[in-house]
Design brief:
Pfam families: Peptidase_M48. Keywords: Cell membrane, Hydrolase, Membrane, Metal-binding, Metalloprotease, Protease, Transmembrane, Transmembrane helix, Zinc. The protein has about 625 residues and is an alpha+beta fold. Helix content is about 60%, strand content about 5%. The chain has 23 helices and nine strands. Strands 5, 6, 7, 8 and 9 form a five-stranded mixed beta sheet that branches. α22 links the parallel β7 and β8. α16 runs antiparallel to α17 and α17 packs antiparallel against α18. The longest helix is centred in the middle third of the chain and has 40 residues. The C terminus is likely disordered.
Length: about 625
């Protein structure tokens, strides 16, 4: 299904749900039944063929056509049985019991009674900043369900008890009452079809090919038709949390999670991996994470993280609505809350310290080889900085910018403004130096920031999108001593609109399915490549990666990239999320589109068109 068709079907489903919710649900149920009918029909057809063909062959009517028919029927029977008897892997993490964490289980039981939900079969503790309840089929498309709660240790560190209970109530709300059971049944069915598709993806027999063809037609339409149901279910789960804990508590939990999650990704993990510069052996993160998550985020960072979260629109990439819509649905204003003063680790009882030590030890074991690579890489960075600093008197503007960039990797708090100013003395309109200068100017120095942004906008078309966003943000932010400048704000907003349109055209070029046209080998320096390899080494699901340059007609001088990653251990949904995360975090000097090896492009196409891989995981073939 084309993306435009998927979007159209989602919009039609949303309209149908809004006009007549009951009729919409009946339609969803009938379409779900179609999938069941396919499996049952294939099973009956295969069984009938086997029953008819076996006697024919046993009574001496041997023909190759009958033999091939029997083999095809057996293949179809096997594919149908696999659909009916799917096995799901247990969630990652460590199972905990009521004896180990009685306060947590008491809280879950109180929530279960209030929302009238089913019992939780198993509770898992893991190291992610998240909480989720997953209901999986016990056997496959038919049969009962297994309910598992996965609770992240960092979330227990970050939220106080009422806000954590609001999160747990939201998750439990997905399983509430009759409506919850219907939504959960649809969710289980979706998981089953995804799992079946993964199981059959590498099968090459005719029966599997027929089932794959049906799934290729059916599953995108099933996902589109059920999207409105899943989105409604998220809002309803939020409302349940609001009713039980209070709308202000539920909204505060949503905002605090957004801000602290951004802090973990942008600040904490970068700082933690930076410790490898002076520590050859890995250091567990969770003990220091506990101390830092108990502190209030820095006000400027928190305000910016909230602004970005509120700017994200509810889209079709995720059934979860955007933060702005979720908070508005609770009837609360989206503002920074009073931060949690104490986490909810007390819910784990006396074993909290033991679990922190356990996950620290596990993290060190899993990341030992990656930490070693990072230690070696940062050692090379330190040597390169020393070399650049020693020749600073004759360095070019580009070398000075490189020194500043590498120095920031070793110490993000280092004063870099003199380096950027020196670079601009040697090349007055060097765009990367102008960008670096803007980032080092004081927030209150509006005049200097806007002057530098104007110079950057004039100097390089490639940097206009960044310059216009920074200028608009600056002019929209109230500053003491500065009156609102409507004319300047209009100018920069108009420029931002034009720059955004140009960026969208460039991204359309990157997304063009003819991925290997106008590509060349990557142009990264040894240090740029080393940084990307170090980042990929910390991303455990990546087995292999390729990187190529993509020539853009919109920006002929821009460094733009396509990255291809091999992710055999993940589902397509998880692969999609990881690729989007890599696009935001990979340290390449330009925009990058990350794609996984799958149906388009295939692994063979990547091997033929993307040159040699830039990252083979330790212990794997290159």
């Amino acid at each position: 299904m084309e993306h435009a068709d998927f979007v159209h079907m989602v919009r039609v489903s949303e309209q149908a749900s809004a006009q007549d919710s009951q009729a919409y649900r009946r339609g969803v149920a009938l379409f779900a039944a179609l999938g069941y009918a396919w499996v049952i029909g294939c099973l009956v057809l295969a069984g009938g063929l086997v029953v008819w063909l076996v006697p024919q062959l046993l009574h001496g009517r041997f023909r190759f056509g009958l033999l091939w028919g029997l083999l095809g029927a057996l293949g179809l029977l096997w594919a149908s049985l696999r659909a009916l008897w799917l096995r799901f892997d247990a969630p990652e993490g460590v199972a905990i019991t009521a004896q180990e964490a009685p306060a947590l289980f008491d809280a879950l039981e109180r929530i279960r009674k209030k929302v009238r939900g089913p019992a939780i079969d198993t509770v898992y503790l893991d190291g992610d900043f998240n909480a989720s309840i997953r209901q999986t089929p016990r056997w496959g498309l038919f049969g009962g369900a297994v309910n598992t709660l996965t609770l992240g240790l960092p979330l227990l560190m970050a939220l106080d008890k009422p806000r954590l209970l609001a999160v747990l109530t939201h998750e439990y709300g997905h399983l509430r009452g009759d409506h919850g059971r219907f939504a959960a049944w649809i969710y289980r069915t979706r998981l089953s079809w995804m799992k079946l598709h993964e199981n059959l993806r590498d099968d090459e027999n005719i029966a599997s090919a027929a089932t794959q063809a049906f799934l290729k037609w059916y599953f995108p339409r099933f996902a589109a038709k059920t999207f409105a149901l899943a989105r409604q279910d998220e809002y309803e789960a939020d409302r349940i949390a609001g009713r039980l804990l209070g709308g202000d508590v539920a909204a505060a939990a949503l905002v605090e999670i957004e801000v602290k999650n951004a802090w973990l990704h942008q600040r904490f993990w970068a700082d933690h991996w930076r410790r490898a510069a002076n520590a050859e052996l890995p250091v567990g993160p969770f003990e220091s994470m506990r101390a830092q998550l108990s502190l209030a985020p820095e006000p400027g960072f928190a305000q910016e993280a909230l602004r970005l979260a509120l700017a994200r629109l509810s889209d079709l990439d995720d059934t979860h609505p955007g933060l702005r819509d979720r908070v508005a649905a609770l009837g609360v204003q989206p503002v920074l809350p009073d931060w949690s003063r104490r986490g909810a680790l007390s819910l784990l009882g006396d074993g909290a310290a033991r679990w922190i030590a356990h996950f620290d030890k596990q993290w060190c074991k899993e990341n030992a080889s990656r930490w070693k690579l990072q230690h070696a890489w940062l050692g090379r960075v330190r040597e390169r900085v020393k070399l650049l600093a020693a020749s600073r008197a004759t360095s070019s503007a580009g070398e000075l910018v490189e020194e500043a960039s590498l120095s920031r990797q070793l110490d993000p708090k280092i004063e870099l403004r003199p380096l950027y100013e020196l670079a601009l003395q040697r090349s007055a309109e060097h765009p990367a130096a102008l960008q670096g200068l803007v980032q080092t100017l004081p927030e209150g120095d509006r005049v200097a920031r806007l002057q530098a942004l104007q110079r950057l906008w004039t100097a390089s078309q490639d940097y206009r999108w960044w310059a216009t966003r920074m200028a608009v943000d600056e002019l929209e932010t109230p500053r003491p001593g500065f009156a609102h400048d409507a004319a300047a704000l209009k100018l920069w907003r108009d420029r931002r609109k034009d720059a955004a349109e140009a960026e969208e055209r460039a991204w359309e070029e990157l997304r063009d399915p003819s991925y290997f046209s106008r590509v060349t080998r990557h142009d990264l320096s040894s240090f740029e490549l080393g940084e990307v390899q170090a980042e990929l080494s910390r991303c455990q699901p990546v087995v292999r990666a390729w990187l190529v340059c993509k020539a853009l007609r919109e920006f002929p001088r821009r460094r733009a990239y396509l990255a291809f990653v091999e992710l055999p251990a993940l589902s397509d949904e998880d692969r999609y999320d990881l690729c989007r995360w890599l696009e935001r975090t990979l340290s390449v000097p330009g925009p990058v589109l990350v794609l996984w090896a799958g149906e388009s492009p295939t692994l063979d196409e990547i091997r033929r068109g993307a040159f040699e891989p830039i990252y083979p995981q330790i212990g794997s073939a290159s």
